[in-house]
Amino acid sequence: MKMQWILICALLFALITAVFAVVNVEPVLVNFIFAQTSTPLILVILTSTLLGGLIVGLFGMVRQYKLHRKVRHLEKQLHDAVLPPAAQPVKDTASEASPTVH
Predict the structure, then answer these.
(1) Whose CA is closest to 44, among 30, 65, 31, 54?
(2) Which of 11, 34, 46, 67 has the fewest CB atoms within 10 Å, measured from its CB?
(3) What is the pLDDT of residues 6-42, one digit of tens each?
(4) What residue spans carry the region label Disordered (predicted)?
(5) How is 3-27 classified by DSSP, letter by letter?
(6) Where in the chain are the domains?
(7) Buried (b) or exposed (e) across 62-83, using 16+ Cβ within 10 A?
(8) pLDDT of residue 89
């Protein structure tokens, strides 16, 4: 249900941004430090929205990656705590080294 609300809010934001951008089509002067250019305001609005979404998405991916690593580390700690090293099953390498012929 949470994902549905997020999707609804995202679509609502996209609709509001699109309407706002279409209403503002007059050219504006964009001043980069090294150059100036005149471009329609609709492009400035849509580009800013897109770049903002990409930046937020990248931060979200980094956060999710860190949380995933932390979960794996904690699961390993839990496994080691439940099964101490002396009680862990020993891998039988002798049976794997000699193939069984039937």
Answers:
(1) 30
(2) 34
(3) 889 889 988 998 888 888 889 999 998 899 999 998 8
(4) 83-102
(5) HHHHHHHHHHHHHHHHHHHHH--SE
(6) 2-84
(7) eeeeeeeeeeeeeeeeeeeeee
(8) 64
> What does the block give as tokens for 18?
């699109």
The dihedrals phi and psi of 29, each to the nearest 5 degrees, come to: -90, 120
3-class secondary structure, 36: strand
How many residues in the chain? 102
Please name the amino acid found at residue 53.
Answer: G
Query: Are 36 and 28 a contacting pair, CB within 8 Å?
Result: no
Tracing tokens 């020993």 back to the chain, one arrives at 90
Q: How far apart are CA 49 and CA 8, in angstroms?
A: 17
Measured distance CA(7)–CA(16) in Å, rounded: 14
